[in-house]
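Final report, closing paragraph on structural work. Over the funding period we assembled a curated collection of sequence-structure pairs, and we close with a single example.
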Amino acid sequence: MRINIDGKLRIERFELSHTDDLFRLIQENRVHFGKWLEFPHRTHTVNDASAFIIRTLQKQAAGNGGWSGIWLEHHLIGAIGLVQIHRNDQIAEIGYYLAQEYEGQGIISRSCREVINYIFEELELHRIEIRVHPENLRSRKIPERLGFTQEGILRQAEWFIDHYRDKVIYGLIKEEWNPGL
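Its predicted structure, as stored:
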């Protein structure tokens, strides 16, 4: 998947050639990402980043999701992914993260809009979910801004380092999607 958002911003499927860029992004944002996401706590070497890309390529090949980089010109600044695709139920889950210095510029919202269009138009799925830690207010604004409905809180739904954490679940049905938001 490669989606040009504008002249400078694009979404591009991760390839092994992106390993160094991904590792650099994680290194530079380890504390920032690590507050909400577990992968920075497991990604200690370039080989760990490479192994992640291999897993995501395998997932994409199986039609079960996968991750893409968010690129500003030639710099990897974040990622957006289809965390999981449930083909039988026609559901996809979106995840995302962005380097701290690029937050507040609408980059994730614009990226999500493009991925939502891709899910509904190209993959022809029926429902999209986004799951967010309840205290991650910045991340919660994304689905709220895009017209998702907060459907509830999944209690102790995620193992994070050494404890369980809740997740807020947001859902969007194809008929509810307004690409002009």
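Residues 46-61 form the longest helix (16 residues). DSSP finds six helices and eight strands in the chain. We thank the funder for supporting this effort.
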